[in-house]
Amino acid sequence: MGTCSSAPRMTVSLRTFMASNPKDALGEDWYFDTMNVLLDRWAHSHVQFLRKKFLEATGDEKELDKKGFFSLFAELQDMPKSVAESAFRMFDTDNSGKLNFREFCCALALCCQLMSSDDEKIRFVFDMFDTNDDGLLSSRDVQQLLEHALQREEEKYLEGEEKEDAIQKRQQRIAEIKQELNVSSSQQLSYDRFYEWAIRNMDGLNNLLCTFQIVPSPDRERSICEDILNRHPSLQEGSTWYCISHKWLQVWKAHAGWTGPSPGRRVPTASGLLGAPVAVAGEPQRSR
Asked: Cα-flanking dihedrals φ and ψ of residue 286, to 5°?
């Protein structure tokens, strides 16, 4: 498998590609060529990492079942069951009820922020929320989509009036967007109309796809680090932190486009044992 930098993009809809018998409908050569195009987006290091995650979720099995899928993509459990089930079907191309590693990598290539085009991400989100596979989004589908697209990570940590205010603002924004899209109980949303809105609001779409970011983009890495440091500005007794190389940290800051204060701290040397500065970073954990 090569790198993804020059990999061609899929030009058909996901519903066409994810059909029950795509080889019969589109020809075996086309089907396998498209599968290989998707696989070629992953570099060798990515494949090794994905394989590790896949095996962790499957245990002793060679294929990933629904239980392992929802364990691996835990944020799907915060979505309506019908949407989570639809996401699983997007991966399960042969409708076997389980995912092999090839299906796993191909589907991720279509929704991973690092690999997929905006068109592919829009199509994936639309099809995931089109839970009855009729090619249209109902008012309820749109409501659920916008609820999760506009929800911000920081809302999880708000309390009291601040949280209520954030929810109220989000609901107001949802009502405005539904009016803009002309969606009502009797008026459904087509893909073309959804695309026109989504292409102007990719931040919301990317927010929806965060759960699938097993291989995080540089922006996602930076966002995660910023969130951790905002919630844990200093060391606390009973927390566990991890030491990383200062040199590695400088490389990562360039990779992630880090422009804020350094996410690391210099650790004083002890009896001359530590001769170089070491960055301390990580998610605090309870001591056992």
From this structure: -70, 140
Check residue 101 and give left, alpha or beta (phi > 0: left; psi -120 to 50: alpha).
Answer: alpha
What confidence score (pLDDT) does residue 266 get?
Answer: 42
Which tokens hold the place of 133? 């596979």
**Angle of the 81-91 helix axis to the 118-129 helix axis, nearest 10:** 130
Q: What is the 3-state secondary structure (H, E, C) of 68-97?
A: HHHHHCHHHHHCCHHHHHHHHHHHCCCCCC
Helix (H) or strand (E) holding 253: helix 246-256
> pLDDT averaged over the chain?
75
Kindly report the pTM of this predicted structure: 0.66
Residue 56: CB atoms within 10 Å: 11
| pLDDT tens for each residue of 128-178 | 999 988 899 999 999 999 988 887 655 665 677 888 888 888 889 889 998
Given a contact cutoff of 8 angstroms between Cβ atoms, the answer to whether 88 and 97 are in contact is no
Backbone angles phi, psi at 251, to 5 degrees: -65, -45
> Is residue 250 a contact partner of residue 264, using CB atoms and an 8 Å limit?
no
CB 145 within 8 A of CB 208: yes
Query: Mind listing the pLDDT tens digit for each residue in 198-234?
Result: 999 888 888 888 888 877 667 777 877 877 777 777 7
What distance separates the 2 farthest-apart alpha carbons in the chain? 74
